[in-house]
Amino acid sequence: MTLSPEQQAEIDDLRASPQPTLRTVSEGMEKHLYSAVPVLDHGFVRVVDYMGDDAAICQAARVSYGKGTKSVQNDEGLIRYLMRHWHSTPFEMCEVKLHVKLPVFVARQWIRHRTANVNEYSARYSILDREFYIPAPEALAAQSVVNNQGRGEALEGEEAERVLRYLRDDAMRAYDHYEEMISQDGQQGLARELARMNLPANVYTQWYWKVDLHNLLHFLRLRADAHAQYEIRVYADAICDIVSDWVPFAYKAFEDYRMGGATLSSTALDCVRRMLKGEEVTQENSGMSKGEWREFVGVLG
Ligand SMILES: Cc1cc2nc3c(=O)[nH]c(=O)nc-3n(C[C@H](O)[C@H](O)[C@H](O)COP(=O)(O)OP(=O)(O)OC[C@H]3O[C@@H](n4cnc5c(N)ncnc54)[C@H](O)[C@@H]3O)c2cc1C
C-alpha cells in the first residue's frame, strides 16, 4: 500500500483527535475510522465516515423516539426477522463513506453498482501516480477451461515470468510516455485528460464511495462471492470485515440468510419434499435442466 508519510500523518492526526458527540457510535466501527486496510499491491479501503449501528436499524423499524433498543436479544431477533423477510428499508438508515484505491479494471466492475454516490480522483486535473497492479504469483492464473468467465490453475515457471515481465514492462513504458507527453519542459505539454488514455487498465485510481447498508450488503453478496473476480473479491472481503465490526447483528444475519443461504425454485422445493418422503429423485425426473440440477445438488452438498 502506498500511503505517503504526510497522508499517514493526516490519518494519525485524525485518529488522535476524538470529538465529543451526542450521536450514536459503533465501537467496532470507531476502531476502523480513517485507517487504511491494504488490499492488492497498492490499494486500500478506509472508512472516512459512517452513520448508524445495529440499534439504528431497530430504531427505524420501530419508528421509536429513543434509542430503539429493547434488549440486545430482542434487537438481534428483530434484525434477523427483517433480513429474512426482505424488509430492507431499516438497513438503509445506516450509511458508510469509504475511500478506496483500486485498479481501473476493478473500478469498472465496481461502478456497475449504481445505488451509491461516487467521487473519483480526476486524471484531467491531477497527474496519476506510477502505480500499477501486478498480480502476486498465486493470482497469476491461466484461463479456465470450464468457465469462460474464470481462471484455472496458477501459471508457473517461465510462462509466469514472461507474463509478469510483459505486465511490468508495458506498464512502465506506458507511464514513461505518459510522463513525457505531459512534461511541460519549456513547452505546453499534452493535456492530462488526453495523455492518460495510453495508460493500461491496471493503473490505480481512487474514489470516495458512499452507500447505505442495504445496498452495501447487495454489493457484498455479489462481490464477496466465489463467482466474483479475485481482484474485486479481496476488496469485498476487506469491507466484510469492517461491516462485521460495524453492525455485528446485521452482518451475522446477512451471512446466515444471504451469503450462506440459498433460494430454491418451487420445482427444487418439490424435489426436496419428494426426497424427504424417500423417493429417488434424479435430474431426469426432477423437472430441472442439467444446469439447474447441478446447482441444486451443489446447494444440498
Ligand atoms: C459474477 C458477476 C459477473 C458479471 N458479469 C457481467 C458481464 O459479463 N457483463 C456486464 O455488463 N455486467 C456483468 N456483471 C454486472 C451485473 O450485471 C450488475 O450490473 C452488477 O452486479 C450490479 O448489480 P445491480 O444492478 O443489482 O446493483 P445496483 O446498481 O447497486 O442496483 C441495486 C438494485 O437496484 C435496482 N436498480 C438499480 N438501478 C436500476 C435501474 N436503472 N432500473 C431498474 N432497477 C434498478 C435493481 O433491483 C438492482 O438489483 C456481473 C456481476 C457479477 C457479480
From TrEMBL:
Its EC number is 2.1.1.148. The active site is at residue 223. DUMP binds at residues 109-112, 120-124, 196, 223. It holds the Pfam family Thy1. One of its GO terms (molecular function) is flavin adenine dinucleotide binding. PROSITE patterns: THYX (PS51331). Binds 4 FAD per tetramer. Each FAD binding site is formed by three monomers. Keywords: FAD, Flavoprotein, Methyltransferase, NADP, Nucleotide biosynthesis, Transferase. One of its GO terms (biological process) is dTTP biosynthetic process. FAD binds at residues 89, 112-114, 120, 212-214, 218. Pathway: Pyrimidine metabolism; dTTP biosynthesis. InterPro entries: Thymidylate_synthase_ThyX (IPR003669), Thymidylate_synthase_ThyX_sf (IPR036098). It comes from the Bacteria. It catalyses: dUMP + (6R)-5,10-methylene-5,6,7,8-tetrahydrofolate + NADPH + H(+) = dTMP + (6S)-5,6,7,8-tetrahydrofolate + NADP(+). Gene3D superfamilies: 3.30.1360.170. Its cofactor is FAD. Catalyzes the reductive methylation of 2'-deoxyuridine-5'-monophosphate (dUMP) to 2'-deoxythymidine-5'-monophosphate (dTMP) while utilizing 5,10-methylenetetrahydrofolate (mTHF) as the methyl donor, and NADPH and FADH(2) as the reductant. PANTHER family: FLAVIN-DEPENDENT THYMIDYLATE SYNTHASE. Homotetramer. Belongs to the thymidylate synthase ThyX family. This is Flavin-dependent thymidylate synthase. It comes from Lutimaribacter pacificus.
